[in-house]
Write a structure and sequence with these properties.
Length: about 375
């Protein structure tokens, strides 16, 4: 059987049926119904955040968070990372703002705070860093810079569900954090996402944006769109949330086996979570240095493919090198470029057997 980079975690079918039974009986399918509300409360508890708004996917959550924070202005610039899924940059651009790419750290691939201040101009309105692969950014340094320059911070926490730093949930840093609940994520609602935040005035803004600006039956107070999570997906979330801790524990076992097999191989660099971070093992990145290891990232990718194993080059190319951005006159980011050329995310998911991890490692190591 093929091994893909990930495989959605699923609840037991009977559990899901039980959870959607009331939806069938009530005919209440969407528009912030009782299942949505129950799920929202459960998530606030699980993530340990003061406030949370649910969305149809992570991308719309981020796009609307940028809008809701009032960042849209003529010529406004947002400092962000090119080492991400393209959604982060698209969300900035689709708000009429200009991305200013900040290079990343070579050890954990998150935005390098030492390079942020040089990029700040009188047009800068915000910083949007990304918690890459389930590790967290240097939140303390970014917080200091944003306060000094009076800038908003929105974290793209698409990979950081359930991650904590010194015991504090990932959704507590900055002005807002976006989580993705896509099928490929550690925690999924099929498609889905959320914005965590602490300023209560933000709640109404987000609500307006995701529900046409409607306040009451006869009141439309703002020009909003539609990005609501429906009841069936909320029910999927309720089921998967119950299994979250066991799911992360199982992923940790898989990651530990990879560490054991690949940890001391010259020319393979593995991910290193920031000190104090409890990771969720969302992805398993390995950096291949061809000069030392003898095989390039692309060689390893092809060799795995020949063995019916499908790793992925997340994130290649870096966003500022993608067709839709490469001619935009953006600054080069040499570290992000280098990492995007050498990184491979190896298969990791709840059901991946340790024997399969061994098989993957055997192929990589020519055993
Ligand atoms: N910011 C960051 C940093 C992100 O990584 C993402 C999403 C976002 C923002 C936006 O969040 P969302 O709007 O998506 O909530 C995938 C996902 O579609 C995307 O959610 C994710 N990041 C990105 C990194 O990866 P693809 O095009 O690589 O996925 P795909 O269809 O090739 O699937 C990869 C593997 O996952 C498959 O080989 C098998 C497995 N899979 C896939 C699907 C669709 C399943 O097991 N079940 C499934 O239903 O983009």
């Amino acid at each position: 059987m093929s091994i893909l980079v990930t495989r959605s975690s699923m609840p037991k079918l009977e559990d899901y049926i039980e959870e959607i039974r009331p939806i069938f009986e009530s005919h209440r399918l969407t528009n912030m119904g009782p299942v949505y509300k129950q799920f929202q409360h459960q998530l606030i508890d699980y993530l340990g955040v003061p406030e949370l708004s649910l969305f149809v996917n992570g991308h719309m959550a981020l796009e609307m968070a940028i809008h809701a924070l009032g960042l849209r202005r003529e010529g406004g610039e947002v400092i962000t990372t090119p080492f991400t899924f393209v959604s982060t940059t698209h969300a900035i651009v689709r708000n009429g703002l200009k991305p200013v790419f900040c290079d990343i750290k070579p050890d954990d691939y998150t935005m390098n705070p030492e390079k942020i201040e040089d990029l700040i101009t009188d047009k800068t309105v915000a910083i949007i860093p990304v918690h890459v692969y389930g590790n967290l950014c240097d939140v303390e340094a970014i917080d200091k810079i944003s306060k000094k320059h009076n800038l908003k911070v929105i974290y793209d926490a698409a990979h950081a569900f359930g991650v904590t730093y010194k015991g504090v949930g990932a959704g507590n840093f900055g002005d807002a954090s976006m989580f993705s609940f896509h099928a490929t994520k550690v925690f999924n609602t099929i498609e889905g996402g959320a914005v965590a935040f602490h300023d209560q005035s933000f709640r109404e803004k987000l609500h307006e944006l995701k529900n046409f600006g409607i306040h009451g039956v006869d009141d439309v107070m703002a020009v909003g769109g539609n990005a609501k999570l429906d009841e069936f997906r909320a029910a999927m979330g309720i089921c998967n949330l119950r299994r979250m801790d066991e799911c992360i524990t199982r992923r940790a076992e898989v990651a530990a086996r990879y560490n054991e097999r690949l940890g001391n191989i010259p020319g393979i660099r593995l991910g290193k979570p920031k000190e104090g971070v409890m990771p969720n093992h969302a992805y398993y990145p390995a950096y291949f240095d061809e000069n030392v290891f003898g095989k390039s990232r692309d060689d390893v990718f092809e060799q795995l493919k020949e063995n019916d194993i499908y790793a992925r080059k997340y994130f290649y190319p870096a966003v500022n090198e993608m067709a839709c951005y490469k001619d935009g006159g953006y600054a080069e980011t040499p570290i992000a470029h280098d990492v995007s050329m050498h990184i491979l995310t190896l298969p990791i998911y709840e059901e991946l057997a340790l024997e399969d991890v061994d098989r993957i490692c055997d192929v990589i190591l020519n055993k």
